[in-house]
Amino acid sequence: MTAIDSEAGTEGDRREHLLAKLADLDEQHAKAVAGGGEKYVARHHERGKLLPRERIELLIDEGSAFLELSPLAGWGSDFTVGASVVTGIGVVEGVECMITANDPTVKGGASNPWTLRKTFRAAQIAEENGLPSISLVESAGADLPTQKEIFIPGGKVFRDLTRASARRQPTIALVFGNATAGGAYVPGLSDYTVMVKEQAKVFLAGPPLVKMATGEDTDDETLGGAEMHARTSGLADYLAEDERDAIRIGRRIVARLNWRKASPEPTAYAEPAYDPDTLLDLIPADLKEPFDPREVIARIVDGPSAGNEVAFDEFKPLYGASLVTGWARLHGRPIGILANAQGVLFSEEAQKATQFIQLANSSDTPLLFLHNTTGYMVGAEYEQGGIIKHGAAMINAVSNSTVPHLSVLIGASYGAGNYGMNGRAYDPRFLFTWPNAKSAVMGPAQLAGVLSIVSRAAAEAKGKPFDEEADAGMRAFVEQMVEEQSLPYVLSGMLYDDGVIDPRDTRTVLGICLSVIDTAPVAGTDRFGVFRM
Ligand code: COA
Question: Which among 223, 250, 377, 424 has most CB atoms closer than 10 A?
Answer without folding.
Answer: 250
